[in-house]
Amino acid sequence: MPKLVYDFAEGGKDLNDLLGGKGANLAEMVSLGLPVPPGFTITTEACRAFLAARREPPGLRDAVGTHLAALEEKAGRMLGEPGDPLLVSVRSGAKFSMPGMMDTVLNIGLNDATLAGLAARTADARFAWDSYRRLIQMFGKTVLGVAGERFEEALDKAKLHNGAAADVDLGVKELKVLVEEFKGIVLTATGRPFPQDPRTQLDMAIRAVFDSWNGERARLYRRREHIPEELGTAVNVMAMVFGNLGADSGTGVAFTRDPGTGHAGVYGDYLRNAQGEDVVSGTRNTVPLQELEHIDKCSYDELLQNMRKLENHYRDLCDIEFTIERGKLWMLQTRVGKRTAEAAFRIAVQLADEGLIDIDEAVARVGGDQLGRLAFPRFAAGSDTPPIAIGIAASPGAAVGRAVFDSKTAVERARAGDRVVLVRRETNPDDLGGMIAAAGIVTSRGGKTSHAAVVARGMGTTCVCGVESLDVDTERRRFTAPGGVVVTEGDVISVDGSNGAVYLGELPVVQSPVVRYFEGELDPRGPEADELVAAVHRILSRADAVRRLQVRANADTPQDAARARRFGAQGIGLCRTEHMFLGERRELVERLILAGADAERDEALDALLPLQRADFAAILAEMDGLPVTVRLLDPPLHEFLPDLTDLSVRVALAGARGEPVEHDRRLLAAVRRLHEQNPMLGLRGVRLGLVVPGLFTMQVRAFAEAAAERARAGGDPRGQIMIPLVGAARELEIVRADAERVLADVAARTGIALDMPVGTMIELPRAALTAGRIAEVAQFFSFGTNDLTQTTWGFSRDDVEGEFFTVYLDKGVFGVSPFEALDRDGVGRLIEIAAAEGRARRPDLELGVCGEHAGDPASVRYFHRVGLDYVSCSPFRVPIARLEAGRAAVRDAAEHAVESDTR
Amino acid sequence: MPKLVYDFAEGGKDLNDLLGGKGANLAEMVSLGLPVPPGFTITTEACRAFLAARREPPGLRDAVGTHLAALEEKAGRMLGEPGDPLLVSVRSGAKFSMPGMMDTVLNIGLNDATLAGLAARTADARFAWDSYRRLIQMFGKTVLGVAGERFEEALDKAKLHNGAAADVDLGVKELKVLVEEFKGIVLTATGRPFPQDPRTQLDMAIRAVFDSWNGERARLYRRREHIPEELGTAVNVMAMVFGNLGADSGTGVAFTRDPGTGHAGVYGDYLRNAQGEDVVSGTRNTVPLQELEHIDKCSYDELLQNMRKLENHYRDLCDIEFTIERGKLWMLQTRVGKRTAEAAFRIAVQLADEGLIDIDEAVARVGGDQLGRLAFPRFAAGSDTPPIAIGIAASPGAAVGRAVFDSKTAVERARAGDRVVLVRRETNPDDLGGMIAAAGIVTSRGGKTSHAAVVARGMGTTCVCGVESLDVDTERRRFTAPGGVVVTEGDVISVDGSNGAVYLGELPVVQSPVVRYFEGELDPRGPEADELVAAVHRILSRADAVRRLQVRANADTPQDAARARRFGAQGIGLCRTEHMFLGERRELVERLILAGADAERDEALDALLPLQRADFAAILAEMDGLPVTVRLLDPPLHEFLPDLTDLSVRVALAGARGEPVEHDRRLLAAVRRLHEQNPMLGLRGVRLGLVVPGLFTMQVRAFAEAAAERARAGGDPRGQIMIPLVGAARELEIVRADAERVLADVAARTGIALDMPVGTMIELPRAALTAGRIAEVAQFFSFGTNDLTQTTWGFSRDDVEGEFFTVYLDKGVFGVSPFEALDRDGVGRLIEIAAAEGRARRPDLELGVCGEHAGDPASVRYFHRVGLDYVSCSPFRVPIARLEAGRAAVRDAAEHAVESDTR
């Protein structure tokens, strides 16, 4: 039987699969000699067994008993001992941090009998009764499932009745009454009295924490954060220490560096005479950590020493929870701290400069998503609009949107297309849906470590919190700012997450300096560049130096091509020709489609040829010396014609009014003829090329002539011709033979040798499954992961906004849309088959990917791993892909290093 | 270097890959000691090398020279020897017979010099000149590419000018003039004189035959017959023998049994004083073979002896061409003969009865396609409509359609949806397109071995040929029958391919006796059954005894279920529930879709429940004791609503007229909301089940209650629940959990234990690619090959009638639509992956297929080979699938036998 329970002294940070992050890090602190209250961790394996069988796995009860005895031994107190009772906390702790998403129960061990012992030990009867009140409330809500409002209402009534402004104003007498009332609530709601047996309390709390893994909030969070469903949570049982035993007690959270900006120096919040929940919930305002020096210098010095020890040990920013119980410091939790994108880059480079990590490790420590966030626009400097209020800059960025006051409205308005800013007094986990939907978040209470701040930073959403000068009236859906400014639901506000300012109306937004650096407008070593730009530059430079994967861009215009090149693209991996058939040329395309005779069609093609040639020439000029892969026309022809329903209505109405409709009738006939039930599965891509004589050869000729012109002018054009939607080698054979005839003809006419490889998109399952055969004909493959996802799953990209995608995310069919992050099990398997079998047939086959996934950080790492040659993404995503390609290479190197170490 | 040329004495029938059918069989006849003119065969390998390199492979010229010398030696004559010249024929001969599709050149070796020698040897100057005329004409047309009409016009003019009714009426003098004229045509058209050097003639003819492999007719034929493009043709060079040297000469074709009916006894046509082409082309009318006994008993007896020898040797019906040159019989060709479906069954059983083959071999010798053809309807007996004409019953069946007079019109009208009968004087390979398009074919000239007859039998198209009483006027698009009956284009006629009758108007059609046997209306051993029904019964019984693959049916109604069971189905593999939502229930479905609130939706579902239960109860009753797999609702909901465009126009017009449109407006809003760009890739299948609360559970409840009712009534219901369009295991987990809750509930309420496995369709590439994971949840897999083909290829089934499918068939992207015959490389590979990985995870996983392919003979053999448990097809295809499953098992056994032999 596996070991189901570990004492804190038995574990370590490398066991976080089994002990969860919190448990593993508690064990690590114990091994570093830091003052951690005694305790033990029940493994994630025990949780998984419990959730699968709906009962405790055999042996768990006994193992908990054994470890509880050890805990009692160390604490010097016994659970349930009336004279001097031990109290314990029961907390969840999964492999990946899920702050506030699962359950916690404190004060386990209190009952009618031990209450007196606690009062005597602490010499604080009020504290003991309040703790008992809290236990019944928390246990009732989270373990027994009693509606939380029932306790809150009773508490509010008690306060009102006793003229008490806050909880602390209730005395022993009132608390005794309240405890009885709470017990009554439990009995009424569950049919059973509140359990008095401490071991029963403990076992029920453990079960409840196990179950909270599958709570609704936890599941929604996991889906959003891509945390696997099957991991389960560990459970940490720890002797309680109390920060609320008076002025010489308190509790706080701290970071070893500023997680918002990355600036060096300790950073955190402290709250006197309070428990940890009071800090995190933001219901009471904290003081900066530095003030602790004046309150309790001894504990402060010890804390700073512990923090240094932790940062040096973890070689990273650490996030710490601590409690001081009557002058004694206890370390309750640590972990590698979350941080903003800006802080991530700064800290990574700082740590490298300090010699704690090397530069490759710095590359590994930042992510493409973070780099993307740094490119978010900011408010223009020098605007003279005064803010209506200033709060704490909790998560950077510039958000403009309509003020909304509850999560539901935020979701609804966002779904309807509005940008919204969610304004709340404070947020709690129930607000998660609205926080996801919002462009920005504003709260009037809570510090940088409040729920709103932590979650917003995690999501990269702009957030200003603790704007105490705002009076938020959720009921009336409005807030009032100093000077009587009233903002009601729907009014536009602007929120600056970098300085904490809230503005009325829409503020102009400017590019971030990081984008200006990408654009080459800002020299990273020059005087104008700040520390952030310098950090980004150092990390990107290193990523470029180590990456194996090339990064190209999807660019259809000379402007996009030029930007892509500035952003570091090593060519164009996908130049779509669709837009070249729109605008003023739509009329020619209409003629092409409506052509009754070959001559009419040829005339339209002849007119398009010089226009296409000019398109290609301009792009080749921008990308001189780098590959330019042109995809021949892909979308269904009817996309160039009016909508069938609209046109039918127009013709019918005009007919009814007796108006002339000759042209429209002819158009309608063509639209009807070309109408397809499922255009995504219809006449498009290579099928168009085979059905419309002269279309593809016109495009090839235009491209070849443009390349010949450029070569004659002394340039270095490197064109590649890409055929879309191939499903069978034969399709490509026909088109390639035609293309090569045209290339030979252009070469003969111009006297310029043209080396333009002909390759194919791999975007149908059949292409991947027969890639060996197709590689006999194709000189390169480019995976079109959008279409490949579409057919592999049978999902239409046009319809993903539809009802069932939301339901699928909700029900956990996938954690993230397969159109966003590559589905490795399905689509990825096809890519791996095609890559292996294509290369087996043609060892020098070039392999790339040009779907949206090419710019998705996780997917880029995957494409590196399966051995593709390049990714091609939108110009703005090029730096992100460069970084991720570098990180993938660094990770490879690290894995190889470990392998050689262990050999 | 491979051997490129084989003497007839060197080959044998097992070499037909290399020598083609004709060459291999000629060699076989030589080895049997039959009188074959000397000759040699150039291999298909030489042809492939020639076609790839566009030049003769090295060594071919020398090898031809060597074998030519041997031929001259055997023949006792030399090519080009003026005194007694050898003439040779050059004929194509591919692995699979392609009658008339490639080129032949006769009389090679004649020139201005050898002409006299031929005249002297045959003592027939007219014959020699006519042969020379024929050579220049045939060589000019097929080798030099001169338009055939130019020779024909000159010939016609010569006949007119000389008052000659037929070719034979032209004398030496006229032929001399004609030869000069033909030479002039060649010179004008090609710029070069007709080649006089016999070896040059031979080499050019060989090249032309090679090239004819890629001729348009040949390619069309290959696509239709699924003959691979890359095989190439062999070329047979043979000493000429002449059937046109007078009354003691002649030529004929013969079958060892009747290929039309399967009746025993020799059968064929003979034409005195003629060459082989005259028989096949049908331009002169033949006499029955039996008359040869009176013309030349000696040759007749020898021929019959040769035919017996061949049939015993080949153990099958043989098809023979022979020529008698001045009393000497020469065997020019043999092969296993094509036959009608009816003949195939009769002959297979006859041969088994005669001990030439065993019954398993008989099973292997008939095909599902043939069995399908036997089930074609026939004209009702006892109609008193008199035929307007009677011809030769060349290919059985009953065809009714509009008369058309050329191939192009046949194709156009058929494409427009008309059923047509193609009426021609005679057909030639250029008519192939029209013959494919026609429901029936009528010719006024030619016998059972004419082009029309042979091709029609091959395709299973009804054909009556040689209706000499018809005067077919192609120009005026009409024919005149005896008694002055005039039928013009577009008039409906009925054609009986079993007795040769042609009727005016539409005759009523009845079931074939084979279908009556399937239906159990005809006892195969009873007095009413004919030899054919008995043969079908014996073969099907054996197939049932040996097959491993189960055959189930796709049946949605009790009527279909009952028929399927009569036809031998072993259960229902697919019961669609779509139609159960139509008809009178459409209104309920509309309410379901338009439901604004849960209550409205539940009300609609509650109303549907008892109706569904009754549907299922009736089907379970018919299939008592056999599995019934019900697929939960699959198609997009909007299929139950009106068309968006139609409704939009209706609402717009009504609005313009000021009519009330409230209901339609509401409907339109729903239709718009549900409208999808690509419904095939949209909200359907399991997605519906997850999005519309209560829909799937209503269906499961109805099915479970029906099963429980039936079990309580003493029946043996074996329901299986099938979930469509699953792409991820999680989808199935959710639906299966819901279904099992309902099953448990019904079991609890009724007290009947319900064992209803829950499985899934595998119809998306992702399902196949993640089958291992899905098999953890699915209790069975059923491959939905229609949808799987759709997504694997990215083709919409709704749109395959569109333009590009025709182009794809024409361009050889596929030989047959992948919706008809399973695409093994793409779709098949997914099936193999899913079968292997599904079974690896769940060894007892039941695997079936329920797409259209389950009834396609070639696909059934494939499904057997990849180890599926059953195929499920439409009730009418059940006997076909039974037969093919048996043939697959027989083939396996034969292969295993060979394997043990060779071990």
UniProtKB/TrEMBL annotation, chains A, B:
Keyword Transit peptide part of the UniProt annotation: no
Catalyzed reactions per annotation: pyruvate + phosphate + ATP = phosphoenolpyruvate + AMP + diphosphate + H(+)
Recorded superkingdom: Bacteria
Domain PEP-utilising enzyme C-terminal: 535-886
Name of the protein: Pyruvate, phosphate dikinase
Matching PROSITE patterns: PEP_ENZYMES_PHOS_SITE
Leader sequence segment: none
Keywords for this protein: ATP-binding, Kinase, Magnesium, Metal-binding, Nucleotide-binding, Pyruvate, Transferase
Enzyme Commission number(s): 2.7.9.1
Single GO MF descriptor: pyruvate, phosphate dikinase activity
Enzyme class: transferase
Gene source species: Actinomadura monticuli
Location of the PEP-utilising enzyme mobile domain: 418-500
